[in-house]
Amino acid sequence: MNDVFLELLPVILGAAVVPLYPIIVLLLLQNERGLSKAVAFVVGGVAMRLAQGVLFGLVLGAAMTANGEDGQQLIASTLLLVIGLLLLVAAFKKWRKEEDPDDPPPKWMTGISSLSGLRAIGAGALFVSIAVKQWVFTLSAISIISEAGMERPSGIGLYLFYTLLTQTLVLPPILFYAIAPQRAAKPLKAAQSWLERNNRVIVMTVSFIFGLWFSYKGITGLIE
Q: Which band of pLDDT confidence, cut at 50, 70 and 90, is reported for residue 52?
């Protein structure tokens, strides 16, 4: 279990630090009924991530079981290599200041503040479902858990743990706002501004570091 968690840790960090998700949560918190909207957005995102876990866990698990131990290694390593290359391409595009496919249209962002609670849930689910980098990290987590060959309850528990930890950057501001909304306003605005200013650098760095890591894991797994 400890070895699997260590394998998952970089994936968790990568999924958590992609800036756009916490930026949206911080934007929601600064609007009328911001707490309920931010919570609804996170609930929608978590629900979609859990649905992805169920769907791709079943598909990937069945594929690995059908192909035996060697087949499991081949599938997992190939997936990691493809994911690594995709992240390196994303880092290169960000360096070239090309448009990020994960960035929602400007109209979508300007409409964030007017979302109702129900629509905030849908927006959270939609964001996770169309964010390429979040798909990358979720598929990586599922691959690592499936390759470990753990009992189903342990695998499910570990994926739930992974899902919870991906919310590391959004849960503290939500709790801070819930406890002291007036005191939280200024720090949350400052955090949002910092993330927006440094979004390109953060995404480029995350994509490059994890692209190298996943590519290395995939290549070493294929040649072993």
A: confident
